[in-house]
Amino acid sequence: MANDGEVKLFGTWASPFAFRVELALKLKGVQYEYIQEDLTDKSSDLLKYNPVHKKVPVLVHRGRPIAESQVILEYIDETWKTDYPLLPQDPYERAMARFWARFIDEKFLSTSWQAACSSSEAEREKLIEEALGYLKVLEEQQHKRLLGGNDTIGFLEICSSFVAYWIIVIQEAAGVDLLTESKFPNLWKWAVEFQGCPAIKQKLPLPEKDRLVAFFSAMIEKIKRYK
Amino acid sequence: MADEEVKLHGMWGSLFSKRVEMALKLKGVPYQYIEEDLTNKSPDLLKYNPIHKKVPVLIHRRNPIIESHVILEYIDETWKTGYPLLPEDPYERSMARFWARFVDEKCLPSAWKAACSEGEEREKFTEEVHGHLKMLEEQLRGKRFFGGDAVGFLDICASFVAYWILVKQEAAGAEFLTESKFPALWRWGEEFKGCAVIKETLPDRARLLASLKAYLEIMKAPK
Question: Which of A85, B2, B103, B176 is buried most deeply by CB count within 10 Å?
């Protein structure tokens, strides 16, 4: 490693998880080198830095790798204590941000991805029901402004970029109806605002929709074929 | 309820609930414990955790906090001057968080799948368990505890590996963690369980064994 403070990010353009980390680095004003991974042909470096999960994103700082996007986000927040905190100061507010970020990933994201990749009609219907249930919870919370506006892109908002954008892409790629304006008006409104948010657009534009839809369509087809 | 009062809704056998008790005790935080019957959940539990309806739930300053890892970090950040759960260094903190997630996302499910299956399927899942345990064992690196010289966040989150997994393997008639296969993990487990606070918090073995055996019977019964 050339210099001690060097930051490297192993990611892929389509990954919602890699996007989170990149956005956090940009918001913090941290310089980094981005290494684009081809997930069908992972680099030896990636496998060396994340032997447990063999996935992106991986952040390497001072030669030491950190994996798992939420873990990386907290590392970034604790290492670069700039004027832009990602997590709130108050322990209870921090607990809430962490809880909802986990809810989004462990419940909603996981279930909706399984629904998208399911080749069994019965299983898919059941998973869709479950995912809609999680969206209903988020919708109710959004009524109370769970997810912030343009001026509060913090840890939770960064993690919820999956709900604001990627799920809309994935549901189109998979041909399922999850987050729709009619069913979830509060979330939809927030998602549209998020996508158009200048603070994000200036720092790190979201990947182009058509390209993402094509990427996820191909990925989902491949997964279904190998089941 | 007084504002600074701490209440914990838990269950005697739940490893998630016990994590929180370990953390509170290490910090020296007094708390009121409410035992939940998970077949007949209290109205308070359903009010404080309407989303998951699960234990543990910590209530402090009238605010409920759920999810054991989240609760542990809350405890560490709220009672800052007490016993430190997470290390100071951001990199060490990220390693503790990464491996704590690994225990819950990998070790727990693979052990559960192995315990509930039989024959070839069990063999396959047991191999998975061994793979996960090996990765976790490597993180000890000759340290007394995952946290270094003292029990920390990751030790507490890995208490499954020190205790519950041993009871589960006995209940299932399986072999997950043995001293010969994982000497470093075994040694850590013994040291961990030997700590006064941990020892007094762990659920009674015979009771836990009976409960797990009964649960496995239900899981294995033809549906």
Answer: B176
